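A reminder from the course coordinator: this example appears on the midterm review sheet, so study it carefully.

Given structure:
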């Protein structure tokens, strides 16, 4: 009986120590946005933008994914040819950081600038000439809400 008590006590101590070590330190972020309201205003700006840059024979479909990093900071990934799954050939992409000033988010690179405001991203070349306007798009998978194929591994099922 004494040996069982020592083993049980040792197990409890080990469990408490392990639980304490697994907790994040006080400097780590401790929140997760579970609603649009809690996510903040930057979340509404995040998303995909698509359109055409250039004119005539030189017109090019172009897509941008905007990622909100919080506190008015953003990243933008540009896709010549269109967004992934909508024209991008997986050959080239451009990543640029941006910052919100007032009601405009500006992304600047050696190729030019993109100004995002009111659901539209206006693109300018390196000389400051407007070359196109991209509009925010909302895409959904064509398989959204459909039954998984037989034998598939279901990773997430919102019904359960």
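Designed residues:
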């Amino acid at each position: 009986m004494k040996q069982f008590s020592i083993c049980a006590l040792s197990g409890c101590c080990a469990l408490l120590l392990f639980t304490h070590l697994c907790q994040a330190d006080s400097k780590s972020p401790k929140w997760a946005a579970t609603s649009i309201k809690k996510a903040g205003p930057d979340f509404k700006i995040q998303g995909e933008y698509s359109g055409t840059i250039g004119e005539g024979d030189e017109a090019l479909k172009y897509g941008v994914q905007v990622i909100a990093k919080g506190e008015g900071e953003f990243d933008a990934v540009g896709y010549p040819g269109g967004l992934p799954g909508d024209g991008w050939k997986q050959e080239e992409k451009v990543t640029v950081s941006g910052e919100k000033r007032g009601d405009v988010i500006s992304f600047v690179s050696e190729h030019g600038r993109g100004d995002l405001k009111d659901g539209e991203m206006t693109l300018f070349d390196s000389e400051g000439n407007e070359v196109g306007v991209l509009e925010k798009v909302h895409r959904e998978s064509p398989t959204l809400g459909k039954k998984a194929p037989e034998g598939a591994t279901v990773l997430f099922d919102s019904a359960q």
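Confidence is low (pLDDT under 50) at residues 11-22. Residues 64 and 78 are 4 Å apart (CA to CA).
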